[in-house]
Amino acid sequence: GKLVDVLAPRFDIVARCQGGANAGHTIYNSEGKKFALHLVPSGILHEGTLCVVGNGAVIHVPGFFGEIDGLQSNGVSCDGRILVSDRAHLLFDLHQTVDGLREAELANSFIGTTKRGIGPCYSSKVTRNGLRVCDLRHMDTFGDKLDVLFEDAAARFEGFKYSKGMLKEEVERYKRFAERLEPFIADTVHVLNESIRQKKKILVEGGQATMLDIDFGTYPFVTSSSPSAGGICTGLGIAPRVIGDLIGVVKAYTTRVGSGPFPTELLGEEGDVLRKAGMEFGTTTGRPRRCGWLDIVALKYCCDINGFSSLNLTKLDVLSGLPEIKLGVSYNQMDGEKLQSFPGDLDTLEQVQVNYEVLPGWDSDISSVRSYSELPQAARRYVERIEELVGVPVHYIGVGPGRDALIYK
């Protein structure tokens, strides 16, 4: 979120291509006021920027309006500045209910979703009985389509109680929403491609991390869309050849919310130190994030999949004060044999032994440093070692949450 907010003034459009309100992007305005965004793109604080929510995203309309109301009440104008794809799928409260029921059903093997209904909504999309934003323009058939979703949920989950009164209530509610959402609805595929033809500059904001990608992440502990670079084309309807630079955003250490394998995880006191220093609690759920050393094997894998032209290394300041810092540089299998690539098989991943490279830490607080040359030598060595190991240059370094707490390398 922060990098998008910082880069936004250089672009005409900031677009979200996938995910929904499961993303949590925290940004600060010039006065230091904090905004927690979930669906609205992070370029919204810049008046000249048009924000687009593409066809690959899923829209919980009440949540979307809640975000807009929160922005407007804090002096951020949204009128005429946000476009929502007519092809984007609608996420209903029933999807959120189903999300909770699914997690409860999985009991001990639960995925650890945000319970925002993202998975069930994408399931509706893939099984082709989902409703899209454009369906709000046809309220005469809206109820029948929604009835199918309700009936499906009731048939699948014993705990899902459905009555026709619920359907009537929801249809009436969405009639009101349809009226309010209409000014935001657009054929964003056309808008974006016209903008490309007019040589306008577009910045695309990913919703989650590559390691949560439905295809390339630690399946099944993943999200239900493609937050890797491939999701840009499918989630916005733009051609691969028009994509320019790709900036990978990576923390100076590794974090994870929810379940799933985490080879470099720090348990106990060491993990607590990073969690507290980095304020590692989920923006969407408030859950404490699991913390660990930077996993170079996973980072190289992400660089391969996305073809990053540069990296934004965030939260380097959080590592200040540690006597030594480790980098997980390779994995060994249980028999001691080195793994040549990031494993797709979870059983293998959960049993790997991580080989670490140990680098010296630094004592000084770097949160007020704004020039790369002014960083302590050990901090520079850490950054440069990451570049050497993954083969991608670090162009941006975050040293604090504020908009100005960024070093350009």
TrEMBL record:
Residues of the active site are H25 (proton donor), K125
Q: Where does IMP bind?
A: N22, A23, G24, H25, T114, R128, Q208, T223, R287
Q: Return the protein name.
A: Adenylosuccinate synthetase, chloroplastic
Q: Please name the HAMAP family in this protein's record.
A: Adenylosucc_synth
Q: How does it assemble?
A: Homodimer.
* A cellular component term, taken from the record's GO annotations: chloroplast
Co-factor binding comment: Binds 1 Mg(2+) ion per subunit.
Give the similarity note: Belongs to the adenylosuccinate synthetase family.
